[in-house]
Amino acid sequence: MSIAIVYFSATGTTKSLAEAIAKGAGPEAVLLPITGKQIVEGRFTDEALLAQLTAADAILFGTPTFMGGPAGQFKTFADATGGIWYHQSWAGKIAGGFTTSGSFSGDKQGTLQYLVTLSQQHGMIWVGQNSPNGLYSGKPLDVALNRLGSYTGVMGQAAPGQPLTAGDLATGEAYGARIAALAKKLK
Ligand SMILES: Cc1cc2nc3c(=O)[nH]c(=O)nc-3n(C[C@H](O)[C@H](O)[C@H](O)COP(=O)(O)O)c2cc1C
């Protein structure tokens, strides 16, 4: 069983959430960063990365929220999956997603909705985030799970230059564990 976590991160915040998710998912998790170098004349060209995703049992998509949606680098990757979509090669795989932003809202929901749509075009099975809302946990918000109240997928928020809260990272870790358990059951 393998869980591929494909993500773009410009300044490391989304990367830290991807790593937390990988930690929760366990040794089957593989981190696959999208970088500008894979994009040539506007097109994502890393066929080996796409093949790794096709071989995985579950795929998690991660991107920062840029201007209310996925980063351009992530969208370029997503557009390169058109051939995979045509053959429905990812159909039936587990899917999930995560995003980070600078503002508390920052319109992150739009990014997660895009990731859901991407997964549904591929015939995948989207798995939401099920850690309970941290507002009711009695814990300080920086350590509370699901502090941002997101169930569609995992959200993280950090002011510029700041790390994600311990709670946001723990929410990612719990999500990784959930994905791994479901992928195991489905296999
Ligand atoms: C071009 C650009 C657009 C951004 N747009 C938003 C936005 O719409 N909402 C928001 O809250 N933060 C926005 N941010 C802040 C990033 O989402 C935030 O810093 C994010 O955690 C960066 O992730 P990364 O470190 O993985 O690149 C933007 C940052 C950049 C550089």
3D structure, described in words:
The protein is α/β, with parallel strands linked by helices and about 190 residues long. It has one domain: Flavodoxin domain (Rossmann fold), CATH 3.40.50. It contains six helices and nine strands, in the order E-H-E-E-E-H-E-E-H-H-E-H-E-E-H. The strands form two sheets. Strands 1, 2, 5, 6, 7, 8 and 9 form a seven-stranded mixed sheet that branches. Strands 3-4 form a two-stranded antiparallel sheet. The protein is globular, with a radius of gyration of 15 Å. The termini are close together. The structure holds flavin mononucleotide (FMN). Flavin mononucleotide binds near residues 10, 13, 14, 68 and 106.
What is the fold's blueprint, element by element?
Elements: E1 3-8, H1 13-25, E2 29-34, E3 39-40, E4 43-44, H2 47-55, E5 58-66, E6 69-70, H3 72-79, H4 82-87, E7 94-101, H5 108-121, E8 125-126, E9 154-157, H6 166-186
Parallel strand pairs: 1-2, 1-5, 5-7, 7-8, 7-9
Antiparallel strand pairs: 3-4, 5-6
Helix pairs in contact: 1-6
The structure holds flavin mononucleotide.
Flavin mononucleotide (FMN) binds at residues 9-15, 64-68, 100-103, 106-107, 158, 160.
